[in-house]
Design a protein that fits this description.
This protein has 19 helices and no strands. It is globular. By secondary structure, it is an all-alpha fold. The chain starts with a helix and ends with a helix. Helix content is about 85%, strand content about 0%.
Length: about 500
Amino acid sequence: MTLRKLAGDTLVYGTGYILGKVLNYLLITVYLTWKFDGEQEQYGLYTDFYFYVAMLLVLLTLRMETTYFRFASDKAMRDTTFSQTSIILLSTSIIWILLVLFGQTQMANALDYPGFEKHVVVLGMIIALDVMVSVPFAALRLESRPIRYTLLRLLSTVINIVAIVFFLEVLPALAQHGVTWADAWYSHDDRLYYVFLSNLLGSLVVFLIFVPQYLRIRWVWNGFLVKKMLKYALPLVIVGLAGVINQSSYITFQKYILPDSLTDNLSAGGIYAAATRVAIIMSLFTTAFNYAAEPFFFQHAKVEGARQIYADVAKGFTLAGCVLMAIILLYIDGVELIIGESYRSGLSIVPILLLGFLFLGLYYNVSVWYKVTDRTNFGALISGTGAIITIVLNIILIRQFEVVGSAWAALACYTFMIVACYVIGQKYYPVPYDVVRILIPVIGVFLIYWISLQLRGLFGDALWKTLLMNTVLLIGYVAVLFKLEGKMILSVIRRVK
């Protein structure tokens, strides 16, 4: 029953995130890789800028969304917690906007992108708006308001997509036909700016919708509560920063470590980034799971049998994740057709990235112990060490293996984090994870992928025959998993234990 509830929560609370990301994925991966075909450096620039955006979002939100779950789980504290976290984030956002407006030139130069000041300002505004809506979105998740949550997530994405289509398709068409105002607005040489501007419009509309909630804030400073929240949250900031480094820093390392010019390095990074967009389907699944699991874990922390619930969740996550991984790997010959042809050379890293994202999802599972026991300093230690591993291995491996080195660095980092978190967690908060049954589907998915590679040559260039063979392999893999874990699967489907 509990596993079914979490599965439902993953579907419901993750729907807005997944659909939004899927739409964004189709736009960014399919549309932009074709739109910037032959201009891989533009895609590299896009990815590099959003790495810094992700870092700053973690830093400026101070992980108040997770902190909100921790302190607002007590309904009596919910309004007070919302007010205090909102005041904190409003303050950090105002300070950040002032820094951007007065330091845009210095920021652009520090990133090695002189002349990109207006890009920095637009991205700075996006960051501020997203910071200010992070707690209202967390409140919707905790209060079980999935429809509003989903609609708002989708609204932002749809506005973003419509604006990009307008700026990159409609506006240049109007300019080409002699429309004066369109010709004045549009610049073919700066199409990336319009992508950022479209994102800003989506974020702005959602923020305006949340403004009434800010008007109901109790503007009373509770120093004692804020001190407790910051003590809990600050180690999670390190966790979040480390997570961004582990997941998104590859372009920055490739930009500086690859042996060619900055433009050529960004082009290579753009090819790598496009490959990650194929593997990101797994990342969407793990992120949606985390969106549902985080409030779920806190709500069940004091339930009898909570530790067994956590163990079952980890096994269930692994089963679902491995089936998804198998689908991506076995049908990658068809999936590759959705990205621009000049980006397809980087797809060899997809299996490495898929395993890395699966391990990241498992880390979300095994890291529950330090969140529910308020030992977030351990999370900072583990994630911080993981970030150091990512940095060191990127420096070493990119020199030897070029962009493939970034994929191996990410996998090594996530492997360390899972092992370290599991070992330490078993000391402070033992959870009866069935390690062997968790590893079996992981090993199995790569076994069938290896078999697929060995048999691939039998069919030459006949794609349909290869996909048919892989379909048979997939059915066999799922059948074996059902044989091993059928009772658990049926308990989720039929609500029986």
